[in-house]
Specification:
The protein is of the alpha/beta class and 308 residues long. It has a single domain, classed as 3-Layer(aba) Sandwich (Rossmann fold). The chain is 45% helix and 15% strand. The chain is built from 12 helices and 8 strands. It has an 8-stranded mixed β-sheet. Helix 2 links the parallel strand 3 (58-62) and strand 4 (85-89). Helix 2 (73-81) crosses helix 12 (293-307), helix 3 crosses helix 4 and helix 5 (166-173) packs antiparallel against helix 6. The termini are far apart. The relative contact order is 0.16.
Length: 308
């Protein structure tokens, strides 16, 4: 074997290992900078915040695949101003929460949510609001715990219909090579996409930079890929049919121009659970909680008052 072949082999190995070595060099979340509270749960540390009055009906918010809990701030403040106590928290691997290993599937996320609810003394009469992947998590929790639910609110929810590009589909289906593509090329593309939205409409100042900062924290990239292979792959027809049979009130809010969760999800969900109340926000894309948070909050205030 010639020296040229050896050098070429080492170069290929270096390129192959680079995304994984870079991941281990990234820092963990800085808990000293966390704006809320931290609690040690069974799988790791979870960062959470309460927004709104000390007393009032509770709304628990579950964010999406790549957005930390900051994405809820506008919507949560709108509900808080109406007298609701809003609990937001960072899913594992996002924001200021720990990034434990393991498959981020249904059981993984329901354990975190159940742990946090228990820690906060929230046992029943729950209103849970889920965004994107958080909608799938909230749906799964509600279907498994209908006796604890007051209502379920879904915003651009996963678990019904989703649009994926070819790179993402390949990364989800292909171990090792898919990991390399996701950690390197996929996340570099995601960074560019976020940077391009810095001047876009937002009600949460700096939300694009908050999301970009996660790319440089250890655990975020593997968490996103693990979730795409786990929780995000679920098609939740059985869960929604269960909610219909159990009589759990469900509200679904969609963005008319969403290019991640297409508007046809409205029709699919109507087939699964005809009792679902569905609303469409004109001119809204997938970032509903932080681009149209005040509008969604105003809509939900009216709906929630009808039941409260």
């Amino acid at each position: 074997m010639g020296i040229g072949t050896v050098i070429a082999g080492l170069a290929v190995a270096g390129v192959g290992l680079w995304p994984f070595a870079a991941e281990w060099r990234r820092p963990k979340p800085n808990w000293d900078d966390a704006p809320g509270e931290l609690v040690q749960l069974s799988q790791g540390v979870t960062h959470y915040r309460w927004i709104g009055p000390v007393r009032g009906p509770v709304v628990v918010c579950v964010h999406g695949l790549t957005t930390p809990s900051d994405a809820w701030l506008s919507l949560a403040e709108g509900l808080g101003a109406a007298g609701y106590r809003v609990l937001i928290y960072d899913l594992y691997g996002r924001g200021h929460s720990s990034a434990p290993g393991g498959r981020q599937d249904r059981a993984f996320f329901l354990r975190q949510l159940s742990d946090l609810l228990e820690d906060q003394g929230l046992t029943e009469d729950l209103t849970i609001l889920g965004y994107s992947m958080g909608g799938a998590i909230a749906t799964a929790f509600a279907a498994e715990n209908p006796h604890r639910m007051k209502r379920l609110v879904l915003v651009a929810s996963a678990g019904v219909e989703v649009v994926r590009d070819q790179l993402t589909q390949f990364a989800i289906k292909t171990p090792v090579i898919g990991d390399w593509l996701h950690h390197g090329i996929g996340m570099a593309r995601f960074r560019r996409q976020l940077a391009a939205t810095r001047d876009a409409r937002t009600e949460v100042p700096g939300i694009a930079d908050i999301q970009i900062a996660q790319l440089d924290r250890r655990g975020f990239r593997p968490a996103v890929l693990s979730s795409m292979r786990g929780m995000v792959t679920e098609r939740q027809e059985a869960d929604h049919r269960t909610l219909g049979r159990e009589g759990v009130p469900v509200v679904a809010v969609w963005g008319k121009d969403d290019d991640v969760i297409p508007i046809k999800a409205l029709g699919t969900l109507a087939q699964w659970n005809r009792a679902t109340r569905q609303e469409v926000i004109e001119g809204a894309g997938h970032g509903l909680p932080y681009t149209h948070g005040a509008e969604v909050a105003a809509l939900l205030r009216g709906i929630l008052r009808e039941a409260d």
